[in-house]
Amino acid sequence: MNFAPYRQVFGTPGLRPLMIIGSLAKVPSLGITSVLYLYVSHGLGLNFGLAGLVTAAWMIGVGVGSPLQGRAFDRYGFRPVLCAVILVQATFWSAGSFLPYPVLLCAAFCGGLFTLSAFTITRLALAVMVPEEIRHTAYVVESVSTDVSYMIGPSVGVLVITQVSPTTAFLTVGAMMVLCGIGYIVVNPPLQAQEKVERPGGPDEWLSVLFQLRSVLVATIGVSTAVVGLEVAALGSLQHMEQLRWSWVFLVCCGVSSIIGGLIYGAARRPMSALLIVALLGIAMMPMGLAQHWIWLCVLAVPANFLIAPALSGTADLVSRLAPGHQRGLAMGLYASALMVGNAVASPLAGTAQDLAGPGGAFAVIGTVSALTGSWALFLGRKASSPRPTLPEGEASLSAAK
Question: Most exposed: 7, 172, 208, 236, by fewest CB within 10 Å?
């Protein structure tokens, strides 16, 4: 494997502190839903449905707030917006464990609306700091760091809330969010190129960005649906086999496969189209429904998980190329919202399919949705690749990526 692109990426001035802060910030971000869910069900003693409403309120807030926060980065700059985010996060996590349920439900939406967008900040900075020819490699590094943070964040959140107390878990998450936010302010990564082009804002600007990114956003929904749906379907399958105790081995196998696939993708000089990878990811998921033992489930999960990091990093890279520099904040915010849409759809879709058709049906349905969205994204991308004089930067990037 060619490691030269990775040496170039890590040799970029200012990149290492950014990646360290970004990786640390993802740990509490990825543990938030577990902490909120267990706080309501375990700490308040309420049912799982009410616990799910709180996590849903947080996720809806994130989905709505991500593009708004990205647009605010574009218009008002990095540090002023981040100071407001830090203030809201400090308030929510310091007071959240003392709030009655109805107030917590509303506060969770507000907390999600002003969440610390570690993923968006890092991706925006990479688009400016890293040369275009190795940018896909930089996004692979970011995706691999997300895999590692995912292995840590939820586990730490569950451990603290069950072994210590819900209040300690809230304060721990809040402290990490605030400290990482301050770290971002100190590092102060560039989120925009030096050249700024002022264009009118408002609905027309949002529609323009949505039009440019339509193929990538469709593919992104397919990726996140596949990632969450695969996990839900696999856990249901292991429970059906009465082998749920081996779920940790399965999750580690998935994480390692994704990291290896990402590293190989990042080393490629001419990587495969991210839109095609999404379609292949859906197809690769379907055979997992044939597994009758946890070992075979792990084996059959390797091809699909091998494509997850390339799909996530590839779609993020496409967003950075398609969006004009002065609109990248809004574009990355819309990308984060597309990820949230897939996350919200996948779990009930996989659960319902499993109830109606068993584990095999869940893998078939989620795989089909991912394959179809990837194919639709390819179709939209092919239409967008025809020359349009008003969008030279985005069109040229999409044509090159394809």
Answer: 7
